[in-house]
């Protein structure tokens, strides 16, 4: 096998504009692609410098908005990021010290579950 990394993760959303605002404004992701192709809007974001992108899709059959749980994002400063998210009005649970490390949990506007973790 010659697989080198995960390229994209699809996150089902009901409102792409609200999701874009959350991922870009609150989480600090950069918009990689925001393009309409016929009836489909391809909305792809990523943390600055990341190899893996998140596709915010409202058109994926079988993927209900809010059905993604455990999308893990890594941070170099969990406390600062949790404080910044709270200032932005995001409900953050944690940080918590767990046997495998420190992490906090939150959800996007559709209820997709996100884990913010320190290495």
Salient structural properties:
119 residues, alpha/beta, four-stranded mixed β-sheet, 8 strands, globular
Protein described:
- This protein is of the alpha/beta class and 119 residues long.
- It is 18% helix and 41% strand.
- It has 2 helices and 8 strands, in the order E-H-E-E-E-E-H-E-E-E.
- The radius of gyration is 15 Å and the shape is globular.
- The two termini are 27 Å apart.
- The model has no long low-confidence stretch (mean pLDDT 96).
State the share of residues found in helices, binned by percent: 10-25%
- What class, by secondary structure content? alpha/beta
| Major sheet strand order | 1-4-3-2
* Percent of sequence in beta strands: 35-45%
Give me the strand/helix succession. EHEEEEHEEE
Number of helices: 2
Roughly what is the average pLDDT, rounded to an integer? 96
Query: Residue ranges: pLDDT <50 for 5 or more in a row?
Result: none
- The end-to-end span amounts to 27 Å
Largest sheet data: 4 strands, mixed
- Please report the total strand number as a whole number: 8
Spatial shape: globular
């Amino acid at each position: 096998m010659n697989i080198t990394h995960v390229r994209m993760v699809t996150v089902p959303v009901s409102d792409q504009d609200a999701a874009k605002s959350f991922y870009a404004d609150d989480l600090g992701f950069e918009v990689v692609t925001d393009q309409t192709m016929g009836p489909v809007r391809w909305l792809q974001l990523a943390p600055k410098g990341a190899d893996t992108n998140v596709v915010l899709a409202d058109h994926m059959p079988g993927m209900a908005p809010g059905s993604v749980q455990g999308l893990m994002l890594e941070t170099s400063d969990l406390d600062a990021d949790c404080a910044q998210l709270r200032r932005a009005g995001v409900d953050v649970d944690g940080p918590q010290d767990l046997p495998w490390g420190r992490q906090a949990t939150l959800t996007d506007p559709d209820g997709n579950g996100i884990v913010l973790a320190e290495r």
